[in-house]
Amino acid sequence: MRILIIGASKGIGLETTRQALAAGYDVRALARSATSINQSDAKLEKVQGNALNQQDVEAALTGIDVVIVTLGVGLGDLFKPVHLFSEATRVLIAAMKDKSVNRLICITGFGAGDSQASIAPLQRIPFKIVFGRAYDDKSRQEKLIKQSGLDWTIARPGVLLNGARTGRYKVLREPAEWRNGVIARANVADFLVKQIEDRSFIGASPVLVN
Q1: Phi, psi (5° rounding) for residue 44?
Q2: Separation of alpha carbons 109 and 78, rounded Å
Q3: How many angstroms separate the CA atoms of 108 and 53, rounded?
Q4: How many CA atoms lie within 13 A of 182 on its CB side?
Q5: Which domains does the chain have, with CATH numbers?
Q6: Sequential pLDDT tens for the chain (210 residues)
Q7: Which of 198, 168, 165 is nearest to 15 (CA)?
Q8: Which of 80, 88, 143, 146 is the most buried (most CB within 10 A)?
Q9: How far apart are CA 184 and CA 160, in angstroms?
Q10: b/e map 102-130, b = 16+ CB within 10 Å
Q11: Which residues form the NAD(P)-binding domain (predicted)?
């Protein structure tokens, strides 16, 4: 299968690109800085483009079977209005329907959507102050995905750390289990790549923690 990874040039996106290639998938990596991806593989196609640009996204979807969205914002963006997640998702959903691509895997985070209610009381105020703008937009993003009619899976990792992929992490599917925690970016990527062919989490938005 051919995989499109949006936001592939750093962080979880770059690690997902590496792991998808290692698993034998053909990968098209879309990012504004795609040319900076320090990875050479015959199965990797680097595409410089903007996730907010309809033409860029439609072109990137040609011949694609599965889309993985790993967009992120910098620390400096957390204190300004954030619209990237919802606006890029709105563009993507329209393009996926136009191109008849149905499988969407997207990373948001613990605290987005209905998982916000599971934030511990003492964490809610600092979380809102620091991450509120970004997570309000991630919540809008999740709503768009859930209303899209696509075969979607939303992954909500806890606090992200660097570190090796271990494969040892918890996938908390039920709301009663949801809690914050830490998880390595490489383990988040491990979950995302597994969802390319695992259909058991379609229509689910689990929390990922160690």
Answers
A1: -105, 130
A2: 14
A3: 20
A4: 4
A5: 2-209 (3.40.50.720)
A6: 999 999 999 999 999 999 999 999 999 999 999 999 998 899 999 999 999 999 999 999 999 999 999 999 987 888 899 999 999 999 999 999 999 999 999 999 999 999 999 999 989 999 999 999 999 999 999 999 999 999 999 999 999 999 999 999 999 999 999 999 999 999 999 999 999 999 999 999 999 999
A7: 165
A8: 88
A9: 6
A10: bbbbbbbbbbbbebbebbeeeeeeebeee
A11: 7-198
Tokens 């987005």 locate to 112
